[in-house]
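Sample entry (141 residues):
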Amino acid sequence: MNSLIAKVIRFPRYYLWHLSARIPFKIRGVRWPNHLTVKGPMGLSALGRIELGDHITIVNDSKYNRAGINHPTQLVTGRDAILKIDNNVGISGASIYAESSIEIGDYVLIGANSRIYDTDFHPIPSIFKIAWPELQPKLHL
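Predicted structure, serialized as tokens:
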């Protein structure tokens, strides 16, 4: 009986997070994939392109992950950058920032409070970018 009551109480909260996550996706032109589960609020900033595969779970609250999540998941792309997350991926409170390109393959689990960046957030003088374009970071997991 207690289990049924707990499910009834959690049901509206699950759909609240699910629906509130759809708004930033729609505003930023990110396709909502099949079977995306979002638990808790998340951050989304897409100056570039974010592509999500199917069957992705994004956990943003310690209520849903006993490892202890310090902050909501952040999916961020810089101008003209690409962040591609393939199928069957789990993310818990991670910060993923693509300045150029990050690709996360199938069946990857990204643990609580992980950080994945393809930049050190220090600007490189444009003369170096022009002279050595092969030095531009591309990260594939």
